[in-house]
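hey team, just a heads up i'm posting the complex here instead of the shared drive bc the drive is being weird again. everything in one block, sequence lines first with there labels, then the predicted structure for the whole assembly after. its two chains so it's a bit long, scroll down
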Amino acid sequence: MSQHETEKPHLPPPSLWPLGFAIGIACLLTGLVVSWVAAAVGAVIALVFGFLWIRDVTSAVRVPAVPVEPETRPRAPALGDGAPAPTEGEDGMPLMSEQEIGETYSRSGFLSFTTLGLGAVIGGVITVPVLGFAVLPSFTNQRKQNVELGPLEEFPEGRYVIATYLEDPEIGEVSRRTMFVRNNGLLETAPSFTILFSRCVHLGCPVQPNGPVDADKMKKVGEFNVELTPVQPSGFGCPCHGGQYDTEGNRTAGPPVRALDRAEFSVRDGKLWLGEYYSVGKVEGTGARARIQRYGHASPGVHVDGIESWLYPIEVPG
Amino acid sequence: MYPLDWLEERSGLIGATKYFLFRKVPRDTSWFHTLGSATLTAFLVQAITGVILAFYYKPDADSAYESIQAITNDLTLGWLVRGMHRWGASVFVILMFLHMARVFLFGAYKYPRELNWIIGVLLLALGLAEGFTGYLLPWDQTAYWATVVGININATAPFLGPFIAQFLQGGAAIGDDTLSKFYALHMLAIPGALMGLIGLHLYLVMRLGVTSPPWSKEAAGRDRAPVVEPTTNGRSGLTRPGSRGRSNGS
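-- predicted structure starts here --
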């Protein structure tokens, strides 16, 4: 850089448009939470001011279009009227030779593009599978939960039992999960259970039952290291940020965005088996008669219903 | 001295080092200007203590907690090095913010140093990522639940959030894979990126020089060609009219 160049900083001139643009964006984001009207107004403001800003910033490099004379060339004589072949001039050289002086595609240009292109292909062949290996295993071949919680007698009708178990006994205690299981009795002839997953749907802390836990009555059953403790909660509460839920898992207070997640169940040979998790928007009614708005299992903090769910359009596989 | 001459003749490194150490800086630099070097020192402490902790740490769900207990309670001087790494992490983050505040308040992010500010922002983000990934490694209850909450905060980001969260925990829940992934990021990926960017950061500091404080009465930098009076008012709000900029050429 020469001495003189340092005296000419490449700075855009001062401009007020970004201020309006920022206000528009802020209004848009607030509107996403508050109301669609505010969001639309914000979007319009941001678009208008963004356009004006870009116009302002690029005013120096934009030049008015220069009118160009339409290109004219002598009309080629039609074939077959006795004129000499149109591809050759008077001295036998091709007519194209004049244009070849300014070559558009030179040999060295071709070679450097080939080298770069070949390098890109080699780089891609190496990088793509490696990146795939870095990302894909987290989303494929995920374990399907299939855990035996114990014989049905351990789950008295109308009462909650805290069931903790190892989701994957091979990796040990780190896979210990807690479910709140309530036997709702029979609906017609089918067994009915309410099985709430203990992870708070705010940010994933362990929800606790609001009520005395009789730790002395804890029982260990089965091969999944299941521990069953009876409890009679008035609801569930999260110690981290104060989320509160009622006995159906509906949010009653605090920051959670939906009802507590649940797990599917099946009864085989008189034993209760846990299946997949699923997320719940809202529960209407109670016990066996509850109507559950069911969604695929979502991360804590992710909205499954309402306008906010539009922010999470793609369900995570696996 | 012969060995130094031998090295200088073959590499030019002695001259480069001298150039770096004895380059000119503004007369009125102060203690504020040492915050960057302090941050670098904190980073070097983290790098060295981190490598030594890795001699004894086992990134495995079954033995991580026990190996940390062994480092703290059994191994000679382990408590000291782990303590340096643990508290040094906080010192590093605090110093990064102080350094950033100094650069901001002195207006040192302005032309021609905008790119160095951008690199600094990347360094800050990577430094915080080091803090986040390192926090899981003790593998105790605090580490586990703090990481659960941290990952789930990532999950609430629109559109890609849930994917980022599942990528970070290496599956549907935090487990063995999360620990090894965080260990690899904490040990290899992020420190590598940090070192590269720190090199670039220092190169730009050397190339562009140190800014004098806003209260400086002297023109900074080398002698310049006569100033062409700018058409717009280019003064920063922090300088008094006529104290800098205009006096350069006269």
